[in-house]
Amino acid sequence: MADSRCQILERLYKSKSKERISSGINGLDEMLGGGFPAGHIIVAIGDTGTGKTTLALQYIYDGLCKGESCIYISIEEEIESIISTAASFGWDLNNYIEKKKLELLKLDLSDIKNAARRIKVDLPELIKSFGASRLVIDSITLFSIMFDNSIERRIRLVDLNKTIKKMGITALYTSETDTKNPFHSKDGIIEYSSDGILFLQQSESARNMKMMVRVIKMRRTVHDRISRPYEITEKGIIVYPMEMVYHSEGEDVYGEMDKKFLG
Ligand SMILES: Nc1ncnc2c1ncn2[C@@H]1O[C@H](COP(=O)(O)OP(=O)(O)OP(=O)(O)O)[C@@H](O)[C@H]1O
Ligand SMILES: [Mg+2]
Hints:
Strand order of the largest sheet: 5-4-6-7-3-8-9-10-11
Number of helices: 10
Distance between the termini: 20 Å
Order of helices and strands: HEHEEHEHHEHEHHEHEEEEEEH
CATH superfamily: P-loop containing nucleotide triphosphate hydrolases
Radius of gyration: 18 Å
Helix content: 25-40%
CATH architecture: 3-Layer(aba) Sandwich
Structural class: alpha/beta
Strand content: 25-35%
Bound molecules: adenosine-5'-triphosphate, magnesium ion
Largest sheet: 9 strands, mixed
Protein backbone atom coordinates (compact mmCIF):
# COMPACT_ATOMS: atom_id res chain seq x y z
CA MET A 1 0.00 0.00 0.00
CA ALA A 2 1.30 3.44 -0.87
CA ASP A 3 2.53 5.62 2.00
CA SER A 4 0.07 8.23 3.20
CA ARG A 5 1.10 11.87 2.89
CA CYS A 6 1.26 11.96 6.69
CA GLN A 7 3.73 9.05 6.82
CA ILE A 8 5.91 10.65 4.16
CA LEU A 9 5.97 13.97 6.04
CA GLU A 10 6.80 12.20 9.30
CA ARG A 11 9.72 10.36 7.67
CA LEU A 12 10.94 13.59 6.10
CA TYR A 13 10.71 15.34 9.48
CA LYS A 14 12.61 12.53 11.22
CA SER A 15 15.36 12.50 8.61
CA LYS A 16 15.52 16.31 8.76
CA SER A 17 16.05 16.24 12.49
CA LYS A 18 19.23 14.15 12.14
CA GLU A 19 22.41 16.12 11.82
CA ARG A 20 22.92 17.47 8.32
CA ILE A 21 25.96 18.94 6.64
CA SER A 22 25.14 21.46 3.95
CA SER A 23 26.39 20.67 0.47
CA GLY A 24 26.97 24.40 0.06
CA ILE A 25 24.16 24.50 -2.51
CA ASN A 26 20.70 25.44 -1.18
CA GLY A 27 18.76 23.72 -3.94
CA LEU A 28 20.70 20.48 -3.53
CA ASP A 29 20.20 20.59 0.25
CA GLU A 30 16.46 20.86 -0.40
CA MET A 31 16.57 17.77 -2.62
CA LEU A 32 18.30 15.95 0.26
CA GLY A 33 15.88 17.05 3.00
CA GLY A 34 18.43 19.42 4.56
CA GLY A 35 21.91 18.43 3.33
CA PHE A 36 24.21 15.40 3.46
CA PRO A 37 23.59 13.22 6.52
CA ALA A 38 26.63 13.71 8.78
CA GLY A 39 29.28 11.00 8.46
CA HIS A 40 28.15 9.91 5.00
CA ILE A 41 30.45 9.19 2.07
CA ILE A 42 28.91 10.73 -1.04
CA VAL A 43 30.09 10.27 -4.61
CA ALA A 44 29.35 12.83 -7.33
CA ILE A 45 29.50 10.97 -10.64
CA GLY A 46 29.59 12.88 -13.91
CA ASP A 47 31.25 13.40 -17.27
CA THR A 48 33.95 15.94 -17.80
CA GLY A 49 32.77 19.52 -17.39
CA THR A 50 29.62 18.68 -15.44
CA GLY A 51 30.94 20.62 -12.43
CA LYS A 52 32.30 17.91 -10.12
CA THR A 53 35.28 19.99 -8.99
CA THR A 54 33.06 23.07 -8.61
CA LEU A 55 30.65 21.09 -6.41
CA ALA A 56 33.56 19.77 -4.33
CA LEU A 57 35.01 23.26 -3.85
CA GLN A 58 31.61 24.72 -3.02
CA TYR A 59 31.10 22.03 -0.35
CA ILE A 60 34.51 22.75 1.18
CA TYR A 61 34.11 26.53 1.01
CA ASP A 62 30.75 26.29 2.78
CA GLY A 63 32.45 24.40 5.63
CA LEU A 64 35.27 26.94 5.83
CA CYS A 65 32.77 29.83 6.02
CA LYS A 66 31.12 28.03 8.93
CA GLY A 67 34.42 27.78 10.82
CA GLU A 68 34.98 24.06 10.09
CA SER A 69 38.35 22.51 9.27
CA CYS A 70 38.44 20.86 5.87
CA ILE A 71 40.71 18.64 3.80
CA TYR A 72 40.78 18.68 0.00
CA ILE A 73 42.78 15.99 -1.78
CA SER A 74 43.43 16.66 -5.43
CA ILE A 75 44.65 13.76 -7.50
CA GLU A 76 45.12 15.42 -10.85
CA GLU A 77 44.94 19.18 -10.62
CA GLU A 78 47.84 21.09 -9.11
CA ILE A 79 47.20 23.05 -5.91
CA GLU A 80 47.70 26.40 -7.68
CA SER A 81 45.09 25.42 -10.25
CA ILE A 82 42.57 24.48 -7.53
CA ILE A 83 43.19 27.79 -5.76
CA SER A 84 42.68 29.72 -9.03
CA THR A 85 39.51 27.79 -9.88
CA ALA A 86 38.09 28.61 -6.44
CA ALA A 87 39.13 32.26 -6.86
CA SER A 88 37.25 32.40 -10.17
CA PHE A 89 34.08 31.84 -8.12
CA GLY A 90 35.15 34.43 -5.53
CA TRP A 91 36.27 31.83 -2.94
CA ASP A 92 39.58 32.76 -1.35
CA LEU A 93 41.22 29.52 -0.22
CA ASN A 94 44.63 31.05 0.59
CA ASN A 95 43.16 32.85 3.57
CA TYR A 96 42.00 29.52 5.08
CA ILE A 97 45.23 27.71 4.23
CA GLU A 98 47.14 30.41 6.14
CA LYS A 99 44.73 30.14 9.09
CA LYS A 100 45.28 26.35 9.05
CA LYS A 101 41.59 25.67 8.48
CA LEU A 102 42.15 24.12 5.06
CA GLU A 103 44.62 21.41 4.09
CA LEU A 104 44.94 21.23 0.32
CA LEU A 105 46.93 18.19 -0.76
CA LYS A 106 48.06 17.03 -4.17
CA LEU A 107 48.64 13.30 -4.43
CA ASP A 108 51.38 12.33 -6.83
CA LEU A 109 50.37 9.18 -8.69
CA SER A 110 53.80 8.68 -10.21
CA ASP A 111 54.81 7.39 -6.76
CA ILE A 112 52.02 4.87 -6.15
CA LYS A 113 53.46 3.35 -3.00
CA ASN A 114 53.84 6.72 -1.33
CA ALA A 115 50.39 7.90 -2.50
CA ALA A 116 48.74 4.74 -1.13
CA ARG A 117 50.57 5.13 2.19
CA ARG A 118 49.56 8.79 2.47
CA ILE A 119 45.90 7.82 2.04
CA LYS A 120 46.02 4.80 4.33
CA VAL A 121 48.24 6.08 7.14
CA ASP A 122 48.69 9.84 6.90
CA LEU A 123 45.09 10.75 6.05
CA PRO A 124 43.48 9.35 9.24
CA GLU A 125 46.19 11.06 11.31
CA LEU A 126 45.63 14.30 9.48
CA ILE A 127 41.85 14.15 9.92
CA LYS A 128 42.38 13.59 13.63
CA SER A 129 45.05 16.20 14.26
CA PHE A 130 43.31 18.74 12.05
CA GLY A 131 39.90 18.08 13.60
CA ALA A 132 38.49 18.05 10.08
CA SER A 133 34.76 17.63 9.54
CA ARG A 134 34.70 17.70 5.71
CA LEU A 135 36.83 15.81 3.20
CA VAL A 136 37.00 15.88 -0.58
CA ILE A 137 38.82 13.44 -2.85
CA ASP A 138 38.88 14.75 -6.44
CA SER A 139 38.82 12.30 -8.10
CA ILE A 140 38.32 8.83 -6.62
CA THR A 141 38.57 7.43 -10.18
CA LEU A 142 42.19 8.54 -10.40
CA PHE A 143 42.87 7.12 -6.95
CA SER A 144 41.44 3.73 -7.89
CA ILE A 145 43.25 3.41 -11.21
CA MET A 146 46.53 3.43 -9.29
CA PHE A 147 45.86 -0.22 -8.57
CA ASP A 148 46.16 -2.45 -11.56
CA ASN A 149 43.56 -5.12 -11.05
CA SER A 150 39.90 -4.92 -10.10
CA ILE A 151 40.27 -7.05 -6.97
CA GLU A 152 42.96 -4.82 -5.51
CA ARG A 153 40.95 -1.75 -6.51
CA ARG A 154 37.91 -3.06 -4.67
CA ILE A 155 39.94 -3.94 -1.58
CA ARG A 156 41.60 -0.50 -1.50
CA LEU A 157 38.35 1.41 -2.00
CA VAL A 158 36.46 -0.59 0.63
CA ASP A 159 39.44 -0.16 2.96
CA LEU A 160 39.52 3.59 2.34
CA ASN A 161 35.80 3.90 3.04
CA LYS A 162 36.14 1.90 6.27
CA THR A 163 38.87 4.27 7.44
CA ILE A 164 36.85 7.37 6.49
CA LYS A 165 33.74 5.99 8.22
CA LYS A 166 35.67 5.33 11.41
CA MET A 167 36.84 8.94 11.46
CA GLY A 168 33.23 10.20 11.32
CA ILE A 169 34.07 12.82 8.70
CA THR A 170 31.56 13.70 5.95
CA ALA A 171 33.27 12.96 2.65
CA LEU A 172 32.53 13.93 -0.93
CA TYR A 173 34.33 12.04 -3.70
CA THR A 174 34.12 12.90 -7.36
CA SER A 175 34.05 10.18 -9.98
CA GLU A 176 34.14 10.01 -13.75
CA THR A 177 31.46 8.07 -15.58
CA ASP A 178 32.10 4.83 -17.40
CA THR A 179 31.99 5.52 -21.14
CA LYS A 180 30.39 2.12 -21.87
CA ASN A 181 27.89 2.36 -19.02
CA PRO A 182 27.24 6.07 -18.50
CA PHE A 183 25.06 5.68 -15.41
CA HIS A 184 27.91 4.16 -13.45
CA SER A 185 31.27 5.26 -12.14
CA LYS A 186 34.36 4.35 -14.12
CA ASP A 187 35.59 1.89 -11.49
CA GLY A 188 32.08 0.37 -11.10
CA ILE A 189 32.79 -0.20 -7.40
CA ILE A 190 32.56 3.04 -5.48
CA GLU A 191 28.78 3.46 -5.77
CA TYR A 192 28.21 0.23 -3.85
CA SER A 193 30.44 1.08 -0.91
CA SER A 194 29.31 4.70 -0.54
CA ASP A 195 26.27 6.07 1.30
CA GLY A 196 25.11 8.47 -1.35
CA ILE A 197 25.35 9.05 -5.09
CA LEU A 198 24.75 12.28 -6.97
CA PHE A 199 24.58 11.92 -10.71
CA LEU A 200 25.50 14.99 -12.76
CA GLN A 201 24.45 14.90 -16.36
CA GLN A 202 24.59 17.06 -19.46
CA SER A 203 21.88 16.45 -21.95
CA GLU A 204 22.03 17.92 -25.39
CA SER A 205 18.94 18.66 -27.43
CA ALA A 206 18.67 20.30 -30.82
CA ARG A 207 18.18 23.67 -29.12
CA ASN A 208 20.44 23.72 -26.14
CA MET A 209 22.41 21.92 -23.46
CA LYS A 210 20.76 21.14 -20.15
CA MET A 211 22.52 20.18 -16.98
CA MET A 212 20.72 18.10 -14.41
CA VAL A 213 21.42 16.51 -11.08
CA ARG A 214 19.78 13.44 -9.65
CA VAL A 215 20.14 11.85 -6.22
CA ILE A 216 20.48 8.15 -7.03
CA LYS A 217 20.83 7.04 -3.44
CA MET A 218 21.23 8.61 -0.02
CA ARG A 219 21.15 6.08 2.78
CA ARG A 220 19.04 6.73 5.87
CA THR A 221 17.04 9.61 4.45
CA VAL A 222 14.12 10.48 2.22
CA HIS A 223 15.23 12.41 -0.86
CA ASP A 224 14.06 13.73 -4.19
CA ARG A 225 14.43 11.15 -7.00
CA ILE A 226 13.77 13.36 -9.99
CA SER A 227 16.49 14.99 -12.10
CA ARG A 228 16.55 18.71 -11.38
CA PRO A 229 18.19 21.38 -13.51
CA TYR A 230 21.32 23.19 -12.40
CA GLU A 231 23.63 25.87 -13.71
CA ILE A 232 27.29 26.68 -13.15
CA THR A 233 27.42 30.43 -12.61
CA GLU A 234 30.24 32.77 -11.59
CA LYS A 235 29.06 32.28 -7.99
CA GLY A 236 29.12 28.50 -8.22
CA ILE A 237 26.46 25.86 -8.83
CA ILE A 238 22.77 26.71 -8.49
CA VAL A 239 20.26 23.83 -8.35
CA TYR A 240 16.57 24.44 -9.04
CA PRO A 241 14.87 21.84 -6.80
CA MET A 242 11.28 22.67 -7.77
CA GLU A 243 11.85 22.63 -11.53
CA MET A 244 11.66 19.89 -14.10
CA VAL A 245 14.07 19.63 -16.99
CA TYR A 246 12.58 21.12 -20.16
CA HIS A 247 14.11 20.65 -23.55
CA SER A 248 11.57 22.57 -25.53
CA GLU A 249 8.66 24.75 -24.61
CA GLY A 250 5.76 22.96 -22.95
CA GLU A 251 7.45 19.59 -22.94
CA ASP A 252 8.97 18.27 -19.76
CA VAL A 253 11.64 15.75 -20.49
CA TYR A 254 12.93 13.39 -17.87
CA GLY A 255 16.64 12.82 -17.77
CA GLU A 256 17.96 9.56 -19.19
CA MET A 257 18.32 8.37 -15.60
CA ASP A 258 14.62 9.03 -14.89
CA LYS A 259 13.60 7.13 -18.02
CA LYS A 260 15.64 4.18 -16.83
CA PHE A 261 14.18 4.17 -13.34
CA LEU A 262 10.63 5.41 -13.91
CA GLY A 263 10.06 3.51 -17.14
N1 LIG B 1 34.32 30.87 -12.70
C1 LIG B 1 33.40 30.25 -13.43
N2 LIG B 1 32.23 30.87 -13.72
C2 LIG B 1 31.27 30.25 -14.43
N3 LIG B 1 31.38 28.97 -14.90
C3 LIG B 1 32.51 28.33 -14.65
C4 LIG B 1 33.57 28.92 -13.90
N4 LIG B 1 34.57 28.02 -13.79
C5 LIG B 1 34.13 26.93 -14.46
N5 LIG B 1 32.92 27.11 -14.98
C6 LIG B 1 32.12 26.13 -15.75
O1 LIG B 1 32.29 24.87 -15.12
C7 LIG B 1 32.78 23.91 -16.08
C8 LIG B 1 33.81 22.98 -15.47
O2 LIG B 1 33.43 22.59 -14.22
P1 LIG B 1 34.37 21.60 -13.40
O3 LIG B 1 35.80 21.84 -13.63
O4 LIG B 1 33.86 21.70 -12.01
O5 LIG B 1 33.95 20.23 -14.07
P2 LIG B 1 34.48 18.78 -13.77
O6 LIG B 1 33.28 17.90 -13.82
O7 LIG B 1 35.29 18.78 -12.53
O8 LIG B 1 35.39 18.47 -15.03
P3 LIG B 1 36.59 17.39 -15.15
O9 LIG B 1 35.94 16.04 -15.26
O10 LIG B 1 37.27 17.79 -16.42
O11 LIG B 1 37.47 17.51 -13.95
C9 LIG B 1 33.46 24.74 -17.12
O12 LIG B 1 33.51 24.02 -18.33
C10 LIG B 1 32.61 25.97 -17.17
O13 LIG B 1 31.48 25.72 -17.99
MG1 LIG C 1 37.26 18.21 -12.09
